[in-house]
Description:
Layout: H1 2-42, H2 46-78, E1 82-84, E2 86-88, H3 90-107, E3 111-115, E4 123-125, H4 127-143, E5 150-157, E6 165-172, H5 202-212, E7 216-222, E8 226-234, E9 244-246
Amino acid sequence: INHMADELSNTENMKNEFISSVSHELRTPLTAIKGWAETLTEDNDTITMKKGIHVIINETERLSQMVEELLDFSRIQSGKFTLNLSTIDILAELEDALLIYTEKAKRDKIEIIYNAPEMLPFVYGDKNRLRQVFINIIDNALKYNSQNGTITIEASQGENQNKDNIHILIQDTGCGIKEVDLPKIKTKFYKANHTKRGSGIGLAVANEIITMHNGSIDILSKEGVGTTVIITLPIQKSENKDNKITTGG
């Protein structure tokens, strides 16, 4: 009973921290958008106009991403999170996600090293949701990295007893995760690093998506050295027939 009470207390504390964190994360871009909107109504300078519009677009995208994460989290909690399944080329989805961050990595002076085989077996999954997972993991690898750091991405088929699986490895040379935080990093409401932007639920959503694909996410990390995320997915089998899966279904 005491253990259950402690768990409930910890969950409540994490929930409160989550609400506080999300409120702060929403307030920051809203403040930036409002401030620049007010500036642009008073200043017609071309350089100021371009800078202000650039900030507004970036902050709006940031808000949209957080809202989508919150909606997904709500769907998962209510058992209404749905996957639309089909035969997909997992490398194509990984490379699409990687393409999104190529220019940002250059601006941040972070090198992305991509090692991929010529081809991999097909996966039976939701291409949009799997791309969402890759985007989340790569975004974290950039967010927690530093200038002149590297991100290494590899994709391969397992060998021997693991040949029915595909492994996606995303490794960074960033700040890493404290040993005490590592077991809780995929827990809902948990945010290990409060100094970085984000709602703190992206990884929980990503983990749920991969679990619904009968896969797994394993995270290895050492503080001050970097983090390695390994996503494991089963290859397509002939008996895959259902084209939709819903949480709680």
